[in-house]
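TODO from last week: model RNA helicase.
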Amino acid sequence: GILFNNEDEKEDTSFEKNICRFFMGLFLIFHVFRAEQKFADHMKEKNEASSEFAKKKTLLEQRQYLPIFAVRQQLLNIIRDNNIVIVVGETGSGKTTQLTQYLHEDGYTSYGMVGCTQPRRVAAMSVAKRVSEEMNSNLGEEVGYAIRFEDCTSEKTVIKYMTDGILLRESLRESDLDHYSAVIMDEAHERSLNTDVLFGLLQEVVSRRSDLKLIVTSATMDSDKFAGFFGNVPIFNIPGRTFPVDILFSKVPQEDYVEAAVKQALQIHLSGMMGDILIFMPGQEDIEVRRFFTSLLQPQCNMRLEDLENAPPLAVLPIYSQLPSDLQAKIFQKAPDGVRKCIVATNIAETSLTVDGIMFVVDAGYCKLKVFNPRIGMDALQVYPISQANANQRAGRAGRTGPGQCYRLYTQSAFKNEMLTTTIPEIQRTNLANVVLLLKSLGVQDLLLFHFMDPPPEDNMLNSMYQLWILGALDNTGALTPTGRLMVEFPLDPALSKMLIVSCDMGCSADILIIVSMLSVPSIFYRPKVPSVHCSDQVREKFSVPESDHLTYLNVYLQWKNNNYSSIWCNDHFIHTKAMRKVREVRAQLKDIMVQQKINLVSCGSDWDVIRKCICAAYFHQAAKLKGIGEYVNVRTGMPCHLHPTSALFGMGYTPDYIIYHELVMTTKEYMQCVTAVDGEWLAELGPMFYSIKHAGKSRQVSNILPEYHTQHIQCAFVTLDHKTSHKGQFLKKLRFIYHMKAE
Ligand SMILES: Nc1ncnc2c1ncn2[C@@H]1O[C@H](COP(=O)(O)OP(=O)(O)OP(=O)(O)O)[C@@H](O)[C@H]1O
Ligand SMILES: [Mg+2]
């Protein structure tokens, strides 16, 4: 059947039904769901080879075939003689999988671990898996990985792959990274936010610790810049590439990339050429199998059904960051004999990964980037053309276990003239609140003096500090407050940490802990295959707490708990068991931190208003106000925003005057996701820098709220919240003064 993952929108299903029937008869294979929640658990079996390369050669022969093997000794010499080395090599030459092992073989692991950072989780996990196989050990023993909320290492671990965020957090606990003898910062050219911060921190660590080796791998174009940043350190080039990749450009620009990609994939499929296909799409919506293959049925696609009916089977596997990890792991499993695998991915599969058997890459030429959007005052994912560097990485996913082809669905001239050479570093385009918090807690007083490769724009930094100030993490002078210090302890977004911290005083920390854990995993609800869709929506409504999605989550968790954490119960209620187990793990980990930090666990029992107020205390800056039937506008910006159709508040006939939202998602409209009704007074009380209460016909009276307004929120109709803006200017002015910046 078709996998319907994370189905968000309530849509007409008759079309789905037809499509489903069509494909079930045609070429999709069934996937068996297994019941575990750690990525490592999904990859327990040895990866089965699918290419000739992997089938015919032993693992040792495969290792020795790689370009890096020819320069192994030279590489080790240069590392021995220098503390920092930049390593450059073609995609697939062996940087990620071999460097760690060479260092291990050369004795570096006798006095510490060899760590290797990756910008993405799926890369950290899958590469660790491969290296554990090459070293003939079980994943989690000699070779392990760590990602947020998932530590798959042990006492025995000597080679550790991890996300750059994990190493950054480790440097909080252990500023000299004493557990490591070498750190490889892989895929540095991706310039993720965490990598950029690590650059500055690790450079200092190396200057303090002469026994630590730092190796930075990069694509060719950035290597000089990196070498310069670290003080003209040597650049080592790995010559040669594993297998050739033919690059084929589109002759004309494509109007619809989804349609063009489907067409291209099917052409490859029907051509009879051997090998699996990897398609890059910008976002999850493009990938969700339904949309992707719907476009195939459009008349302009020119695909004749008879052709497809005679074609061999094709297994379509999506991968994107919000997909539960067991489903992500499926892309690495070998398809049954005679079935061609077609992976449809976002840029999470763009770097580092080797999927054995991929011979064809289809590149739509777009990606989604997180960019600070001043209109909504926060980061938003938006679709942009990729950079040349992205394009090369994508092409590099073919040609790893055999010669490959890359079909670019854009013209050569667009590649040369319209695409940036490299993507703008994340640090220059996103909210830095977490980084500011982290650096402040490391004692970096003046962030503008921190050694950044490309410093973030001043305004960006100040805006992030402002957001932290709103949450009470920074004081008026921009210094860390005790709350801010506590917030750093949690591997969460600042607002979520804040919510956990205030929940203790408000007497609902046990409940908020569950809510925060629920918000930290991909979607827990699923909509099953066609016939029972309506039924699943009805079941879902059973959990709904009409005034709050947050409380709905709490309700689901509590009921699951009351049913002894049963997976049967989950299945009966269209809830992902694995996601719920993950929630339970996350809860346990966060609970440990709370205990360490002496934050008591208390439940407010059945008085759930307290919980709503607590949520309001951390999210008052994301509030919306009712305007007309079912329409909301953001209280601070006046921007219209909509309830998401999956919200418990959607279409329930209950439309509270004020709500706060967890996040905004921008698809066709601006949707607020995960929403809770709040009282107007709470907003004024908890977010006094933004709101005060204005009584009809009277002037503003913040301190003079009539008692009955406290008790009867129906009275809110007479109260309008007034949005203040002036304090922001004052705060920023002060910061500019403290940091000796020019006035605006
Ligand atoms: N799971 C796997 N199955 C088969 N071969 C693999 C696997 N993982 C790696 N390889 C082989 O090892 C080679 C090197 O992989 P590695 O990830 O170390 O390259 P890399 O230089 O880091 O590439 P990139 O720049 O794309 O990250 C691949 O080209 C492939 O031949
Ligand atoms: Mg690599």
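Done. The first strand starts at residue 84 and ends at 89.
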